[in-house]
Each structure stands twice: as structure tokens, then as C-alpha cells.
């Protein structure tokens, strides 16, 4: 009898632990709106013949209090097809701001990857329609305002412009982006190293952080230093043209 009770207690503890793990996997503190500089991406990938002088969305990632994207059970890619088939306007809007840049790439396949890997973590508070419409809402209501259409315009206003001759300090880039997100809100700058010269680094992505409603910018956590591939060359970042 005691042995049976012991096994029952162990079973219940395992179940409770599993629930806690699942709850932890699906809880998040902020959303990272990650935009990539197209020209950098296309330096190492064969891309479609599209204008490359703007940022496009890489992903919308639920993140924890340390600023790292969450790991969670994967959603169904077929849900993306169902959503897009029923909302042609949403698909058109996403194609403009969240395209698959690869020459052989398919937009829906890209969105399915982002939804199943990242977006599904927010499913309880941001179901799939709210998630993708939220990405459009951030662009339309928070970025494409005041005669600006792209994050590039905020960088230019801060004196940061694409160039093969100029290099920029990471903090200068952050300060320029803070014209959009607010002076007290930190953002992440991600880099990639040139394959031929390890001393040359290019701007890869900028991570903007938002609250879980996607309506307000918040500060990306700074408790843990995260170089995001920029290494020690944070004063030598190139924004390729």
C-alpha cells in the first residue's frame, strides 16, 4: 500500500513539473520585432531582384525577461495557409514588409517557419491572426508614421546612412533608432562577419522590443550583455549598399 502511495505521489509530482515546464515555455515578457538589413542578408544568399536598401521583418519573437527568444511546442504550419486563404489583404500587407528574400523562397513557407518556431509561443494571448496582424499594426502604427516608411529613415535622420566607406559605432546606431522607440528604450544591434575578412562586420539586424500587446515600445533587457555577433568591433559596423 505504501509503495502504491509513493508511486502515486511521484506520478503527481512529475505531472505538476510537466505542467510548470509547459507554462514556462508558453510565458513571455516581451515581443522582439526583428528587422534585417536586406543588403547584408543578400551578400551571402541568392536573393530575388527586389530593392535592397530597406529593412524587412525577419521575425516577431516572444522573448523572456533576459531578452532571449522563447522555445516552445511547435504550432501547425497549415494554420498559416488557412489564415492567408481567408485574408488576402493580410497576405498582401505581409508580402510588402515580411517577404522571403531568397530567390527560390516562398513567402508562406517563411511565415510558417517563423510561426511554428517562434510565434506559437504567444498563441494563448496572440492567436495566429492577432500575431500576423500585429506585425502589420506595428509597421503601420508605430514605424511608418511622420513621413517615414522604414527604419532606414530613422537611421538617416540620426546621421546613419548605408555606405561602403563609412563605419558606425553601435551606440550611434542605437541612438538613431531611439528616435523611434524612445531615448530610454534599449535596442539590440546584431552583426555578421565578412567571410573573407574577419575584421569587417556588417549590420545584420536590429531588434526592437515591444510589450506583449504590440502597442508600445519597451526597453530590450540589458542585464546580460549580448554581443549578437558584433564582438569587439562595435565601432566598425558597416551598413552595406
Automatic annotation (TrEMBL):
Superkingdom, taxonomy of origin: Eukaryota
Pfam families, A to Z: Ribonuclease_T2
A biological process from GO: RNA catabolic process
The keyword Lyase is assigned to this record: yes
InterPro entries assigned: RNase_T2-like, RNase_T2-like_sf, RNase_T2_His_AS_1, RNase_T2_His_AS_2
Signal peptide range in chain numbering: 1-24
Molecular function in Gene Ontology: hydrolase activity; ribonuclease T2 activity; RNA binding
Family annotation (PROSITE patterns): RNASE_T2_1, RNASE_T2_2
Keywords for the protein's UniProt record, in alphabetical order: Endonuclease, Hydrolase, Lyase, Nuclease, Signal
GO CC list: extracellular region
Family that this chain belongs to: Belongs to the RNase T2 family.
Protein's UniProt name: Uncharacterized protein
Organism of provenance: Capsicum baccatum
Source organism phylogeny: Eukaryota, Viridiplantae, Streptophyta, Embryophyta, Tracheophyta
Amino acid at each position: 500500500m505504501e509503495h502504491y502511495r509513493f508511486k502515486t505521489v511521484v506520478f503527481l509530482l512529475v505531472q505538476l513539473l510537466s505542467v510548470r515546464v509547459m507554462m514556462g515555455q508558453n510565458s513571455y515578457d516581451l515581443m522582439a520585432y526583428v528587422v534585417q538589413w536586406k543588403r547584408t542578408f543578400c551578400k551571402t544568399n541568392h536573393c530575388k531582384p527586389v530593392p535592397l536598401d530597406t529593412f524587412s521583418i525577419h521575425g516577431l519573437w516572444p522573448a523572456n525577461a533576459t531578452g532571449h527568444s522563447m522555445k516552445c511546442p511547435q504550432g501547425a504550419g497549415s494554420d498559416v495557409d488557412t489564415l492567408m486563404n481567408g485574408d488576402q489583404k493580410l497576405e498582401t500587407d505581409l508580402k510588402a514588409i515580411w517577404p522571403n528574400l531568397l530567390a527560390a523562397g516562398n513567402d508562406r513557407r517563411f511565415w510558417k517557419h517563423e510561426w511554428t518556431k517562434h510565434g506559437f509561443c504567444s498563441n494563448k494571448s496572440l492567436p495566429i491572426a492577432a500575431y500576423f496582424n500585429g506585425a502589420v499594426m506595428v509597421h503601420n502604427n508605430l514605424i511608418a508614421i511622420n513621413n517615414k516608411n522604414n527604419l532606414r529613415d530613422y537611421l538617416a535622420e540620426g546621421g546613419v546612412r548605408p555606405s561602403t566607406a563609412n563605419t558606425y559605432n553601435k551606440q550611434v546606431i542605437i541612438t538613431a533608432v531611439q528616435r523611434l522607440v524612445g531615448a530610454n528604450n534599449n535596442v539590440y544591434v546584431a552583426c555578421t562577419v565578412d567571410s573573407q575578412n574577419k575584421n569587417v562586420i556588417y549590420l545584420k539586424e536590429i531588434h526592437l522590443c515591444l510589450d506583449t500587446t504590440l502597442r508600445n515600445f519597451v526597453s530590450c533587457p540589458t542585464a546580460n550583455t549580448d554581443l549578437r555577433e558584433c564582438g569587439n568591433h562595435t565601432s566598425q559596423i558597416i551598413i552595406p549598399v
